[in-house]
Amino acid sequence: MQTHSLSSLVSKTARSLAKISLVAALSVSSSVSAFAQSRLPIVRDAEIEALLRDYARPIFKAAGLRSNIDIILVNDPSFNAFVAGQRMFVNTGALMQAETPNEIIGVIAHEAGHIAGGHQQRLREQLARAQTMAIVATLLGAGAMVAGAATNSGGLGQVGGGIAMAGNEVARRGLLGYQRTEETTADRSAITYLEKTGQSAKGMLITFRRFQSALSLSGAKIDPYQISHPTPQDRIANLEQLAVNSPNYDRKDPPALQLRHDMMRAKIAVFTDGQGAVSRMFRKDPRGLGALYGDAMTSYLHGDPRAAVTKVDALLKQQPKNPYFYELRGDALMKANQPAKAAEAYAKAVQLDPARSGILPISYGQALLAIGTPESAKKAITHIREGLDIDRENAEGYRYLAQAYGQLGNIAEAELATAEGHYYSGAYNDAQIFAMRAQQKFKPGSPGWVRAQDIITSRKGLKNNGG
């Protein structure tokens, strides 16, 4: 008799819904490095991360959550978001497809409902309970089959197989029903948070209608008892009256926020959909700032970086204090092999950045490193470390730091930085190798020696080595 585990059946159901629903992740991790190890395609961008934090801040406050919950970008074209522990993941596809900030704010509010409601912990408890049910049913079925064999009763053996299969099915359906209830609770919590913050729930309805349209176009017939989320039609029916009756229903996003959203969409479109993506996205407003920003990025990625600099300078005349225009200017100058001028642009971006992203100081340090002098390498170390103090898990930053120490001949620090980079990218074996090499060059008990020891004895590393 062939049977399937409960966990594999639930996983299969969740995967089938990934493109039409907001899927609550079952795994929990304490660091981005674990997600890197699992090959989740993480995207880092100072501008997008700052915008999402601005979207989320009032929602988190309304939900009673701490404001420093990480929001992590996933490079995936589907419209989806999920939570894992105290981290929220949002697909780039959701950001690019959402035409207004309100749509993404609704997504964030829904996921905040999962975190505030402790749904992951309760889901783990339900999963354990369901697995126990399935195991008991399997044992009962096995006992019946043994009894059937002992008495030469084929019928009793067949009943045993039926007990095992039925037990698995009951457990699976119970878990799916529980998940649907939690999704409905998160939807209603989202409405509450939006109401508290004076924002419209229209974006949530637009999102669910998008799912409903996608489901209709697919021609799929879904059994509502075989899925982990309510159907889009049911979600709309449950929320529409609450949303429409809110005094905030027709409230629009502030123009400045909408503009930032448009520029975010332009950036994602250029990097994920190629050269023609921006012109298609902004065909109704080809001279708007979002379209012009996308055009400058297209020149940087696919054209002449000097032309990109000229286009960025035109943007800066409209918004002279925009740190991300200076960041793009630095990127283009780096591509044009002008690291000294790039460093000046990145320095201005760092100075103007209200979000104090760790990414920008690291870019500044990278440009200083490319200048190639001992003085610039020393300065690069200062600014890269400044970025890593803010963004400790930035694996790329450690690689630049290692290069800077290598230029100066400080091999111990270079190898320790290399170990850190491997550690935060999830390559724990390599991290331990470089940490051991670095430790041999440090004085025992010194800060570098101690940090190397931390990496060497890391449980993640030991587990990865089979310990």
List keywords for this structure.
22 helices; disordered N terminus; protease; mainly alpha; Serine Threonine Protein Phosphatase 5, Tetratricopeptide repeat; Peptidase_M48; disordered C terminus; metalloprotease; metalloendopeptidase activity; metal ion binding; 467 residues; four-stranded mixed sheet
Gyration radius, to the nearest Å? 26 Å
Give the percentage of residues in beta strands: under 5%
Instruction: Name the shape in a single word.
Output: globular
| Mean of residue pLDDT values | 79
Low-confidence stretches: 1-37, 132-138, 140-150, 159-167, 170-178, 215-228, 462-467
Strand order within the widest beta sheet: 1-2-4-3
Number of domains: 2
N-to-C SSE string, H for helix and E for strand: HHEHEEEHHHHHHHHHHHHHHHHHHH
Major beta-sheet overview: 4 strands, mixed
Class inferred from helices and paired strands: mainly alpha
Number of strands: 4
Distance between the termini: 36 Å
